[in-house]
Specification:
CATH topology of the largest domain: Aspartate Aminotransferase, domain 2
Number of domains: 2
Bound molecules: pyridoxal-5'-phosphate
Structural class: alpha/beta
Oligomer: single chain
CATH class of the largest domain: Alpha Beta
Helix content: 25-40%
Strand content: 15-25%
Largest sheet: 7 strands, mixed
Radius of gyration: 22 Å
Length: 368
């Protein structure tokens, strides 16, 4: 079975088996990770190695800090604004789809939000060209959503925002391809796509972005306070951190982000080629901005979408239904999806389209 869910998503089998093996007794401690005090030596070991492995995976410079927090990216839409807007309370936002719109709506409650570019008029089928962004040099930061999970558009090149720090929601493509983290003032991501189970939100912050929080920020979501306390102001999501640690070590075993990126490129290329080669399917996203991880497409005959999804499901290809905002089909190809899963989907798509083309042909013959 292959699970194309957009999240919570498929996890590597090897990681699940390891978690199963360690579920009742972690490394002879007699405890499940779920039962450990977060101040214990055992949990400290688990947490420290997760932090270290993540640093290694993204070659994190010393002036950045990783915080394992909670709340989900949706909470951090508001928290980013509360923690970073500072005295001017002004920030730039780029609107590229469903999730950046949500981020904008949350940030608006805490200050002035300038929508410096938007793909709304085109139905979010592209990333607005950088030379048309109306950036404000006095903005506290410029926020982008590196990959729009619901719409299937992705930044394949980072914008240059000058002296204004770049802030990104990287929930759905973090660790799927190499990034130059030094280009960001802050980056955040919910875990449930490429990092592990839900419950953990990763915030990576450059140290000069600290000390700007509004008084109203709850202590547990105050990035400065959490940074000073190594993200232990309250109980961290211990089991999710443990699972993320297993994923990080699995990724390192695969050869790191550099290697997984090559596989991800092959997966996405194969699927988009199959879509473009068959007039039964189409993808309306500008080819240069198509997401490598959330491949959104439609059937030419939209009324067949539910039948397609159901039949795919009974063939072991599950969770292909598009997000409610755009419908159609969405195949999420996160790190844990093997190339064989994509090949199985392509085989199914080809068989399905041939069968329906034949049915159409027979109908035309009957009418003639
Ligand atoms: C890009 C993006 N941002 C934010 C979110 C919201 O994440 P959460 O539900 O964990 O708060 C999602 C969820 O799918 C997402 O894909």
């Amino acid at each position: 079975m292959y699970n194309f869910s957009a999240g919570p998503a498929q996890l590597p089998k090897k990681v699940l088996l390891k978690a199963k093996e360690e579920l009742l007794d972690w490394h002879g401690s007699g405890l499940s990770v779920m039962e450990m005090p977060f101040s214990s030596d055992e949990y400290k070991q688990i947490s420290d190695s997760a932090y270290q492995d993540l640093r290694k995976l993204i070659s994190l410079p010393d002036d950045y800090q990783i915080l394992f927090l909670q709340g989900g990216a949706y909470a951090h839409f508001a928290l980013v604004a509360m923690n970073l807007m500072g005295a001017n309370a002004t920030a730039d936002y780029v609107q590229t789809g469903h999730w950046s719109t949500r981020a904008i709506n949350e940030a608006k409650r805490y200050g002035q939000v300038n929508i410096v570019a938007s793909g709304e008029q085109s139905g979010f089928t592209h990333i607005p060209p950088y030379d048309r962004w109306n950036l404000d040099p006095n903005a506290a930061y410029c926020h982008i959503t590196t990959n729009e999970t619901a719409n299937g558009v992705q930044f394949h090149r980072l914008p240059n925002t000058g002296t204004v720090p770049l802030v990104a929601d990287a929930t759905s493509d973090f660790l799927t391809h190499q990034i130059d983290i030094s280009k960001f003032g802050l980056l955040y991501a919910s875990a449930q796509k490429n990092i592990g189970p839900t419950g953990l939100t990763i915030v990576i912050i450059r140290k000069d972005m600290l000390d700007k929080a509004m008084d109203i920020v709850p202590a547990v979501f105050n990035y400065t306070l959490q940074a000073k306390n190594n993200a232990r102001v309250n109980t961290p999501p211990t089991y999710s951190v443990y699972m993320a640690g297993l994923i990080f070590s699995w990724l390192l075993d695969q050869g790191g982000v550099q290697e997984i990126e090559q596989i991800n490129i092959r997966k996405a290329k194969r699927l988009y080629e199959a879509i473009d080669a068959d007039s039964f399917y189409h993808c309306t996203i500008e080819p240069a901005d198509r997401s490598m991880v959330n491949v959104c497409f439609e059937l030419d005959n939209e009324s067949l979408a539910t039948d397609f999804i159901n039949e795919a499901s009974s063939n072991g290809l599950i969770n292909l239904k598009g997000h409610g905002v755009r419908g159609g089909i969405r195949a999420s190809l996160y790190n844990a999806m093997p190339l064989e899963g994509v090949e199985a989907l392509i085989d199914f798509m080809q068989t399905y389209s041939k069968r329906h083309a034949y049915k159409e042909f027979k109908k035309i013959l009957a009418r003639a």
